[in-house]
Design goal:
The protein has 384 residues and is an alpha+beta fold. It has a domain at 2-198: 2-Layer Sandwich (Ribosomal Protein S5, domain 2), CATH 3.30.230.10. Helices cover 40% and strands 23% of the residues. Strands 1, 2, 3, 4, 5, 6, 7 and 12 form an eight-stranded mixed sheet that branches. The protein has a four-stranded antiparallel sheet with strand order 9-10-8-11. The chain is globular, with a radius of gyration of 21 Å.
Length: 384
């Protein structure tokens, strides 16, 4: 990854990079849409991600080039979100603005080259990886100091306030705190982070439906709004509840008939998903991957029925995977409305099994899914 980034930098800029940084994409293991509802979530950083190379300039310009886009130039301090084909630069520019607002001194601009090994549109949060890699690199370049949680919050603030995506801390937190062969557990109410070991023999397979989604333009924002509307109704009975995650299942069921049916389903997903995160945590501690898989399947069913952020293509992939003896469980990963499914499998599940699923999926939907096998990897880091 670093070599490819180095080559892209050399083609576009004079001199050598001062620093390289890498940040991984992530799998949302369990805890769908709980993060911005003050809930619990578990995720895994993956070995694939985004690498950036940076150097200082001697003028007031910022130039950014990626392996998938043209070189874009802006003036230092002229931080306005871009539209169209250059909108991908909103992630590093947003991070630059957040860090500058937090006190980072930028007497001159910078050059940045960006390369990615993450599959586009697969729901693995390339945006958070881009934000975290940028933050790590710029911190080294300009002498800005913060801790791991601080980097995660920088990325989240850039995405919320500059990019315009009302996400929680899941994506940036997992990318920041990832650890090889571990899951990252986040309490989003307190924004506390911990890592939990994965039992041996657990493997991740990602099936990207290649049904494209663009979260900013999708129903993601609608779900965000609906969750807050559900909370407002529940607060009439439970005024101390600051988030949906403060509501227990018994409290929700007691007022079911008083809630708007759609808002009840949205709340039922969040309340149930928090309970499922706790079940997974217990099953992982016991090394019971079958029990973990059952909860993953239940999570997807709730996404399909209650939160309605699944689509037919994702449901097909989950149904096909559940028929495989070597699959513990499967669910959509990420925001939904397209994208990818994650399967938790044993070590016997291989490419032959994956190809059978891909063929059945293509026969039904006339789409060829992209498949890759990954493991839990380390979090965002400065490479040099």
């Amino acid at each position: 990854m670093k070599q490819t980034t180095e080559q892209l930098f050399a083609i576009n800029f004079a001199g050598e990079p001062a620093h390289y940084a890498f940040a991984p994409g992530r799998i949302e293991f369990i805890g769908n849409h709980t993060d911005y509802n003050g809930g619990l979530v578990m995720g895994a950083a993956v070995t694939e991600g985004i690498t950036v190379a940076v150097s200082l300039r001697d003028d007031d310009r910022i130039q950014i080039v990626s392996d998938a886009g043209d070189l874009v130039e802006i003036r230092l301090g002229n931080y306005t979100p871009l539209e169209g084909s250059n909108s991908w630069t909103n992630y590093p520019i947003g991070v630059t603005k957040v860090m500058t607002d937090a006190g980072m001194q930028t007497p001159t601009g910078y050059n940045m080259a960006v390369t990615s090994t993450l599959p586009a549109g697969a729901g693995m949060s390339s945006s958070a990886a881009f934000e975290l890699a940028t933050a790590r690199a710029l911190a080294a370049l300009y002498g800005f100091e913060t801790d791991t949680a601080g980097f995660a919050r920088i990325g989240r603030k850039a995405e919320n306030e500059f990019v315009g995506m009302p996400c929680g801390i899941l994506d940036q937190g997992v990318s920041a705190f990832g650890k090889a062969d571990h899951l990252v557990k986040i309490n989003c109410a307190t924004e506390t982070f911990a890592v939990e070991p994965m039992p041996s023999g657990a493997h991740f397979w990602i099936f990207n439906s290649n049904k494209k989604h663009a979260l900013v333009d999708s129903a993601y924002a609608d779900r965000f709004r609906e969750c807050h509307q559900a909370l407002a109704q529940l607060q009439l009975k439970h005024p101390d509840a600051k988030t949906l995650s403060c509501i227990c299942p018994e409290q929700l069921e007691a007022v079911k008939d008083e809630l708007d049916p759609l808002l009840y389903r949205r709340a039922a997903h969040i309340v149930g998903e928090n309970a499922r995160v706790r079940k997974v945590e217990t099953a992982l501690a016991e090394g019971d991957l079958r029990a973990v898989g059952e909860v993953l399947n239940a999570s997807h069913e709730s996404s399909r029925v209650n939160f309605e952020n699944s689509i037919e293509e994702l449901d097909t992939l989950v149904d096909l995977l559940k028929l495989q003896a070597n699959v513990f469980g499967a669910r959509l990963t990420g925001g939904g409305f397209g994208g990818a499914v994650m399967a938790l499998t044993d070590s016997e599940f291989g490419q032959v099994h994956a190809d059978v699923i891909a063929a059945a999926f293509e026969a039904k939907h006339n789409l060829k899914p992209s498949i890759f096998h990954t493991r839990a990897g380390d979090g965002a880091q400065l490479l040099s």
